[in-house]
């Protein structure tokens, strides 16, 4: 059709608009968690959809559309973080992939799920997630918040499945440590108040 790039039709454009409507809220929340700034998240979201539209012909359907969009969004967020702080190396954004300490890894399972129900604990957890490195935060959000599989997370981030597992383990350990500090401080305050 005349006036459309790469042979796309008006129906193709409408399908893309529908895709934007479907994925924009979830991608925005993901970007906001990564970037921690609403304006930066909005900018990254616009860039994500612009790049997706420009490279629609590159999407071959080997992965789910959502996986492809999350990969574009996550890459855009990591690049924004790097532009904001050029001192951050690519390695720091990607994280260190050495094997985690198995003892600490097993301790993550001790955390009771009921603790997440408390609004105060949720705030502590959200602050702890924000304190993770971009690489750990991205893996944690994709796997444990967005529900992507290890394989999908690896595809989105362009890393190996083993790296996803390692980073997820590290992220969970750091979050567990933050919650353990919170519970230790809370119990200390309650004990002091009782005396």
Features:
0% strand, 2 domains, 9 helices, Arc Repressor Mutant, subunit A, 195 residues, Rna Polymerase Sigma Factor, Chain: A, mainly alpha, 72% helix
Estimated structural class: mainly alpha
Calculate the terminal CA-CA distance, rounded to whole Å: 79 Å
3D shape: elongated
| CATH architecture name of the largest domain | Orthogonal Bundle
- The amount of beta strand, in percent, is under 5%
Uncertain residue ranges: 96-117
SSE succession? HHHHHHHHH
CATH level-four homologous superfamily name of the largest domain: Winged helix-like DNA-binding domain superfamily/Winged helix DNA-binding domain
The overall pLDDT, averaged over residues, is 78
Main sheet? none
Give the total of domains. 2
Explain what this protein looks like in three dimensions.
The protein is mostly helical. Helices cover 72% and strands 0% of the residues. It is built from 9 helices and no strands. It is elongated. The relative contact order is 0.11. Mean pLDDT is 78; it is low at 96-117.
């Amino acid at each position: 059709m005349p006036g459309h790039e790469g042979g796309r039709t008006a129906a193709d454009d409408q399908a893309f608009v529908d895709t934007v409507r479907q994925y924009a809220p979830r991608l925005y929340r993901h970007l906001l968690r990564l970037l921690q700034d609403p304006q930066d998240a909005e900018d990254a979201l616009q860039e994500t959809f612009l790049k997706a539209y420009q490279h629609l012909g590159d999407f071959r359907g080997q992965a789910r559309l959502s996986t492809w969009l999350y990969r574009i969004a996550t890459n855009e967020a990591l690049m924004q973080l790097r532009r904001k702080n050029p001192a951050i190396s690519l390695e720091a954004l990607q994280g260190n992939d050495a094997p985690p300490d198995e003892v600490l890894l097993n301790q993550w399972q001790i955390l009771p799920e009921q603790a997440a129900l408390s609004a105060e604990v949720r705030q502590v957890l959200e602050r702890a997630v924000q304190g993770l490195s971009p690489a750990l935060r991205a893996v944690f959000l994709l796997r444990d918040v967005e529900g992507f599989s290890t394989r999908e997370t690896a595809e989105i981030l362009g890393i190996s499945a083993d790296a996803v597992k390692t980073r997820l383990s590290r992220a969970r350990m750091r979050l567990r440590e933050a919650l353990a500090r919170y519970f230790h401080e809370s119990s200390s305050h309650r004990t002091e108040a009782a005396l």
